[in-house]
Specification:
three-stranded antiparallel β-sheet; globular
């Protein structure tokens, strides 16, 4: 089952998201489990993602992840015209702070259907 907008899920070795248009996904690894968080710029009420939502995202990722990446429409989130650039920068900082530098990555890929999996004992992106 794919993780839909504003949802998260954990599975053994891999996760998949529904299609991204302006979304991003955060994928983390804890042991042999992979967690994915699917974030949209706006919620169902049209409210923009903001820093107040970051603790909820971090709680979904868990406190003990050892690898993590952000994938999707990162450029849209970093664009100040879209109203979420500051919140995205803080989100990335907090996600990155959870791991060593070599265990964090970003994949600014735009629209698509993505996920993450453990392969050869490393967490990496998948493309559908």
């Amino acid at each position: 089952m794919a993780i839909a907008e504003r949802q998260y899920g954990t599975k053994k070795t891999e996760v998949r998201f529904t299609a991204f248009t302006s979304c991003i996904g955060i994928v983390s690894r804890t042991g042999d489990e992979v967690t994915g968080v699917h974030l949209s710029i706006k919620n169902e009420n049209g409210e923009l993602f903001d820093a107040a939502a970051i603790p909820q995202v971090m709680a979904a990722l868990g406190a003990n992840y050892t690898e993590v990446f952000i994938i999707g429409s990162i450029d849209i989130w970093q664009n100040p015209d879209n109203g979420v650039a500051d919140a995205y920068a803080e989100l990335e900082r907090q996600v990155r702070d959870g791991v060593n530098e070599q265990d964090f990555n970003t994949y600014p890929l735009g629209d698509g259907t993505y996920g993450g999996e453990i392969e050869d004992d490393r967490l990496g992106p998948t493309y559908v």
